[in-house]
Amino acid sequence: MEKLSLKDIISKICKEETFEAVSSDYSFTIKIDSYVPYACAAIHDGHQFRKELWDNCMHTEYERWYEEDPETKNMIKSHPIVIAGCDSRFEYDLNRTPEEAVFETAWGKQLWREPLSQEMKDKSLRKHTNFYKVVHTLVQKLERKFSFCTIYDMHSYNWKRWDREVPTWNLGTSNVDNDRFGDSIEGWRLSLSEITFPNEIKPTSKINDTFQGHGYFLKYITQNFENTLVLATEIAKVYCDESDGIIYPEIVRTVEKELISRIPRHALSVYSQFKRQEAL
């Protein structure tokens, strides 16, 4: 992996070069082993938190970790195109609009002892802006090259905070065209429901049960690109102990191994259907 400037990352994508890099400000990573009609994203995987913000933050490191999506990059790391956030959503949230990306409160608790200066906010928002410049360039390249692509938008959620039984997998689809993509969404839901987990975890999979897919990442791509399907895919945090902060690597590895075959198989079926339609 090399360190690259924003300009160089965008240039390499435009030239269809393969590469693996971290952005020069260390805010995100991107890997392109080959250009295929699908990509994977783990925008909440990051845990980095600028040191100059530490003393002013009222949330503990554990509280931040609890609301992040640890290990989601590792679940998709084997795929040809992967983009992932390195910074904590408590600094700026890549799944929220620029206006809402820097929190004042987080999950019902005030975040900062003293309000952030505009300079501190702008430092974070520049990274948010740069990330979306790369996302735009990448999706534009894939659409132009293949006429259609699918983005697997990986997240996780804290299932123990719910007072009812919730699914192991949830797809949020409220902001995609369900009339157009309904069969593709159901195909992905069905594939996820077939995954066998260790430790007697139920492989249940539902649509819009716990979350509905209102994230900015999905909305940004959907609003800017007509022929890209974004699948907001949430796994319950059955792969860790939410209370103790312990990761279960055998479950993370199970998910990764299952997705190695399931994502490209699904992506190819979606591509075959919509590539034909775009050609008509």
Strand order of the largest sheet: 1-2-3-5-4-8-11-9-10
In the CATH hierarchy, the third-tier topology is known as Aminopeptidase
Radius of gyration (Å)? 18 Å
CATH architecture: 3-Layer(aba) Sandwich
What is the CATH first-level class name? Answer: Alpha Beta
Give the helix/strand class.
alpha/beta
Which superfamily, in CATH terms, is the homologous superfamily?
A: Zn-dependent exopeptidases
Oligomer: single chain
Strand content: 15-25%
Considering DSSP H and I runs of 4 or more, what fraction of the residues is helical?
Answer: 25-40%
Number of strands: 13
Which spans of ≥5 residues are poorly predicted at pLDDT below 50? none
Q: N-to-C terminal Cα separation, in Å?
A: 41 Å
Summed up, the helix count is 7
Gross morphology is globular
The largest sheet, given as strand count, sense and whether it forms a barrel, is: 9 strands, mixed
Order of helices and strands: EHEEEHHEEEHEEHEHEEEH
Give average pLDDT, whole number.
94
Pfam families: FGase
Protein name: N-formylglutamate amidohydrolase
Organism: Flavivirga amylovorans
Task: Give an account of the 3D structure.
- With 280 residues, the chain is of the alpha/beta class.
- The protein has a single domain (2-279), classed as Zn-dependent exopeptidases (Aminopeptidase, 3-Layer(aba) Sandwich), CATH 3.40.630.40.
- The protein contains seven helices and 13 strands.
- The chain has helices at 6-14, 61-67, 72-76, 118-146, 178-193, 216-224, 249-279; strands spanning 2-4, 19-23, 28-32, 38-42, 81-85, 105-106, 109-110, 149-157, 169-172, 205-207, 228-236, 240-241, 246-247.
- The strands form three sheets. It has a nine-stranded mixed β-sheet with strand order 1-2-3-5-4-8-11-9-10, sandwiched between helices.
- The longest helix has 31 residues, at 249-279.
- The chain is globular and about 55 Å long.
- The model has no long low-confidence stretch (mean pLDDT 94).
